[in-house]
Fold:
Amino acid sequence: MTRVIAPTLRRYRLLILFALIQACALTALGQNSVVIRVEVDASQASRNLLHTTVGIPVKPGPFSFFYPKWIPGEHSPTGPINDMVGLKLTANGKSIPWTRDPVEMFAFQCEVPPGASDLEVSFDNAAQPGTTMSARLARIKWNRLVVYPRGMNSDAVRVAAAIRLPVDWQFATALPVQRERRDEIEFKEVSLTELVDSPMMAGANFRKLTLASTPVLHEMDIAADSPAALDVKAETLQGWKSLVNEANALFGAHHYRSYHFLLTLSDVGGSEGLEHHESSEDGVGEKALSDPGQLIDLGDLLGHEYTHSWNGKFRRPADLTTPDFEPPMLGHLLWVYEGLTEYLGKVLPARSGLWTPENFRESIAAVAAEMDNQSGRNWRPLVDTATAVQFTYSSPRAWMNYRRRVDYYFEGLLLWMEADVIIRRQSRGKLSLDDFCRKFHGGPDTGPIVKTYTLDEIVKTLNDVTPYDWRGFLDDRVNRINQRAPLAGITHGGWKLVYNETPNEEVKFTEEQRKFMNLSYSIGLIVSNEGVVLDVNPELPAAKAGLAPGMKLVGVNGRAWSGEALREAIAATRKGPAPIHLRVDNGSFQDSYEVVYRGGERHPHLERDTTNSDVLSEIIKPRAR
Ligand SMILES: [Zn+2]
Structure:
């Protein structure tokens, strides 16, 4: 192995060195920045195909360029390099050859011929069906449509972008428009950083709603697969307006020149949840504005991604802030970036009326139960789920309970809720996590700027609000193995996590959406509607009986498989001690299993505990005028 690896690594270092020399040379020539042209043809969007041509000023000689790899907000090397197809280079009107770096798959080299001053790089983004586009709408993510001189800071790369849309499609974006003519739009020159942070949404069925026009424009832009899907209930619109007011009341300042919610409604493409400084990509099902369950889910998504404009875009962990899209992002503080956002992303919909207090409590109960029942917490501290972000997002479903996944979202929520309750109790209700947010995320209104932070600043700001052993508090919950989830925010907040036979509303919605049954808190099993075991909790009866992911249930207590039969069998365990008999296919073999269990159905909820005052209800009270 070393015989192969050593020279490859040497070559890699040489190439990095070459890229750095190239970047330094541009600076030495007085070229602190470079202006590239990006022309996108999106007229074939309904075929999931976008064409782009990138014009880069160059000098004769070796030249290296880079396709964005580490995508902000995705925290991972997720640039869709496999979708970059049809790559062609032209200089002086002639085609020139290119090579890919043998180690860094996102880097390319070529030799610019004598006399050439401009390199034209063209390629297609052949997107996976069902991701960014449908037949009637598209998300245009500029990072998928651009290359830039390798090693250059993305602030120093200036981009003049233009796009051609399908005929009669409308669009929305935070990107400032220079000129608009029929289906062709030219944008003002911006940095590559801003371009990648300002995606565009376009579609045949389109609607724009102003949520606030002062002090700056806040707009809900909606593209849908059908005109009927664009209908917005009056109370939903009022809730969106309140969301803007509540967020601004919470943080006390904003860091954008205007804000666009880019909402797509489609069951086949455009599904998304990605934050930006001045916009968010929010993609849900076609009937999200009329279906009650989907509407509640949308409240969570909008609250989360909007919160990120403050927590994640404006204030960002220093190790997640990179000079361009090549250096790795380090995720160890994602329990702040995503965890605090997950918490505020549920508090804000409740404060703004998009959620009822009961929606909030059911959501918190679902999160608390899931985290408290992760068997992986016996081996894996929370911080490791964040440090390992490069692969935790794409974790397989099988053995997820044992593995843990992106728990920095949900357990992060619980620890920030606990911090909120501690501040409120210590200050006898005078202060709250809102005060932390105003100190940390507020200040004067600004445009889209980044202010980085480290753990020390988090601890210091918490102590500035309310003196407490915050370093010890966070170290214990983030870095240590804890058999139980941090539930003190719930218990000290005046509520208890309980389990009973009534389904949890949020869990039920997820079951319907994903077509599975979540029996995590009874026999410890998640099973598809067809009977395929998706996951087990190794410490609970189903796994102890021998069941494992990938097996298929074909019979329950002597009858053919059905989800109803299994639910009835579990419910019946309350009446008698008999085990549940399961017939199971394991590949081409069939076996019987006996699940020893007698607890009946168990679903999580929060129940009021009157021995403590009701802090949770205080947390979700509206605070905007
Ligand atoms: Zn997020």
User: Anything to note?
Assistant: The first helix runs from residue 2 to 28. The mean pLDDT is 95. The two ends are 66 Å apart (CA to CA). Residues 275, 304, 308, 338, 341 surround zinc ion (CB under 6 Å).
